[in-house]
Amino acid sequence: MNIKSLKEDARRWGWARSIFMRVMRRLQKHLGIEIYSVRIRPLEANPPDPNLPSGFSLRILDRATLLAASEDPELDMFWAFVESALAHGGVAFGAFDGTTLVAYMWRTLSVAPHLDGVWVKVDRPYRYGYKAFTRPKYRGRHINAAVSFFSDAYFLERGYTKDIGLIDVSNLSSLETAKYKGNTSIGFAGYVKWFGRCFTFRTPAVRRTGVELFLR
């Protein structure tokens, strides 16, 4: 265990959360268990002011913009993923500093790829958020939250009223961002892969939302 790294995390998150994060990462690595906090929030008809710096803008990302983004290795968005996401009804939203795409996130109303061949399925009135990214030098400014709130109007116009997302329980930074956005934890979902088989699980409140993990 890297003691220096643990101390740095403890100063930010506290000892209990920092140790918990490391325990969960070891379980994921050695036992193949993935556990996610499932969080929801009502979509905002009148979202808070994003308070972005001068020169920033928020947009829906069209195909041409996504193609350009796929050619930038820092953005971690490859064209094969983009094609699959669009084919399954995914919609991408982004933040720009001038003409530079600095953050993005994907939303879907049906199914989306997750990890390890596992997919996520959602149904009305939920939209599902996935594949969010912010360039390193722009992190810590709540740009991710601004993009998320910006996307709300698009889905409210289509009759979807709630956001649902899965966050790795060891990802303390993303959990903190979700808290900032007003997301409420309703339980847990996840899966375990043993001997070539995949077993998924959901707590009761998560099951009632209809969100489902499945192997595709």
Ordered list of secondary-structure elements with their pairings:
Elements: H1 3-13, H2 15-31, E1 33-42, E2 56-60, H3 63-70, H4 79-87, E3 91-97, E4 100-108, E5 111-113, E6 118-121, E7 126-134, H5 143-156, E8 162-168, H6 172-181, E9 184-194, E10 197-202, H7 204-209, E11 212-215
Parallel strand pairs: 7-8
Antiparallel strand pairs: 1-8, 1-9, 2-3, 3-4, 4-7, 5-6, 6-11, 9-10
Helix pairs in contact: 1-2, 5-6
Fill in the keyword field for this structure.
single chain, 2 domains, alpha+beta, globular, Aminopeptidase, 3-stranded antiparallel β-sheet, 8-stranded mixed β-sheet, 35% helix, 216 residues
In words, what does this structure look like?
- The structure is a single chain.
- The chain is α+β, with helices and mostly antiparallel strands and 216 residues long.
- It folds into two domains: 1-31, no CATH class; 32-215, Gcn5-related N-acetyltransferase (GNAT) (Aminopeptidase).
- Helix content is 35%, strand content 35%.
- It is built from seven helices and eleven strands.
- The chain has helices spanning 3-13, 15-31, 63-70, 79-87, 143-156, 172-181, 204-209; strands at residues 33-42, 56-60, 91-97, 100-108, 111-113, 118-121, 126-134, 162-168, 184-194, 197-202, 212-215.
- The strands form two sheets. The chain has an eight-stranded mixed sheet. Strands 5-6-11 form a three-stranded antiparallel sheet, with no helix packed on it.
- A hairpin with a 2-residue loop joins strand 3 and strand 4 (100-108).
- The chain is globular and about 45 Å long.
- It starts with a helix and ends with a strand.
- The model has no long low-confidence stretch (mean pLDDT 88).
